[in-house]
Amino acid sequence: MTESSSMLMSSRAQGEEKTGPTTEIYTDPNARKILQFLLPSPRTPIAPEILPTDEIHYPQLKGLIELGPAQTVELLTRMSDAKVLASDLVDKAPACPECSSTQVSTRYTCPKCSSYDISRSFLFEHLKCGKVSSDDTFRKGDRLICPKCQAVLHNFGVEYRAVGAWYMCKNCNESFNAPTSSHFCRPKRHQFSTDRTRLMPVFQYRLNPEAIADIRKEVLMYNDAITMMESLGLIVQAPHELLGKSGQTQPFDIVTTIKGRWSSTKTITIDVSVSAENASIERVRDFAAKVKDVKPNESYLIAVPGLSEEARTLAKNLKLSVIEGASVKEAITALLSRDTFKGLAA
After folding, report:
1. ∠ CA 259-265-270 to the nearest 5 degrees?
2. Helix (H) or strand (E) holding 303
3. What does the pLDDT profile of the chain (346 residues) look like in tens digits?
4. What's the whole-model pTM score?
5. Which DSSP symbol is given to 194?
6. Rounded to 5 degrees, what are φ and ψ at 188?
7. Whole-Å CA distances, 125 to 23, 141, 146, 155, 179
8. Does domain 222-335 have CATH number 3.40.50.720?
9. Domain coordinates of the chain in residue numbers?
10. How many H helices and E strands in the chain?
11. Which of 161, 166, 144 is nearest to 153 (CA)?
């Protein structure tokens, strides 16, 4: 499979009136890549991993999307809210009540002064004479010697045993047998008690079984188009973003580059509008604005089944190249018959 075949195909909602969270997900390039990744194995979940920094990471998405851990979690949450993904709770991570960071350490502290500068020693009991004391009083160099009867101890569990632990605070010199605990937020250096800790749910994600048919329709509907273009030797990126003159990136359903004479290249951008009704004038305005910002060598709006009369008039006035067809495959066949693509098959 080529690079472009493995990338996620974009789609428009069925019907121009369809709006809302699901439509936003289908038009988000990173979300579409995740859906494309999951479709071959719908039951396979995207499993979380807690990094040494305590950030939540999804290693299966490494190299697939260029987002940090926090942004990835936010995207997966939106996809779950849009009901294209189902979420399964796998853990609850402690988080800072001030900044919500999960980069949290646990600190064991003195119950008297709350200092974390404490030391721990074990309590040993010499079973023969009954002496109980801290392990450091038994240690003499590399040997264990009972401080009461001076017997050298060799066999743990036979001659001596551990009967607990003992702590001492280096700040206030308090001795105690069990420390209290608190948490420490490493990014913001907040210290907080357990009863103030936020519990952040950690989820694994899989395709929502009830949405798979819709996802397949929305995500995979342009496979024929990409296959046809790649058969001509074109390098196809779908979806792909290009930097515009405004400084913002503009998303296109398909971007391909054709090599010309003397090492020159021609960038071609394509958007595909598929709807139950003819594409509206707003769809044409949106495409025109992106093309004006990016200024590709050529651009095409594919409309299936076509444009409304208003939209067709606007496209003509704006000198946009529009290809209408009863299906994506039919429209792409018409596109590849243009002079720009002639001769590539040879």
Report:
1. 95
2. strand 298-304
3. 333 333 333 333 333 334 446 667 876 778 888 988 888 888 889 999 887 777 788 999 988 888 888 899 999 999 999 999 999 999 988 889 998 888 888 889 999 998 989 988 888 899 999 888 888 889 888 899 999 999 999 998 899 998 888 899 999 999 888 899 889 998 889 889 888 999 989 999 999 999 888 887 777 666 667 778 888 888 888 778 899 999 999 988 889 988 766 667 889 999 888 777 888 899 999 999 999 999 999 999 999 889 999 999 999 999 999 999 888 888 888 998 888 887 665 4
4. 0.52
5. G
6. -105, -5
7. 69, 19, 9, 12, 22
8. no
9. 111-178, 222-335
10. 10, 21
11. 144
Find the length of the chain. Answer: 346
Could you identify the residue written with the tokens 């495959």?
329
Across 42-127, where does the E strand assignment appear?
49-50, 56-57, 85-95, 104-109, 118-126
Residue with tokens 């067709």: 312
- Give the closest residue to 228 by CA, choosing from 38, 54, 4: 4
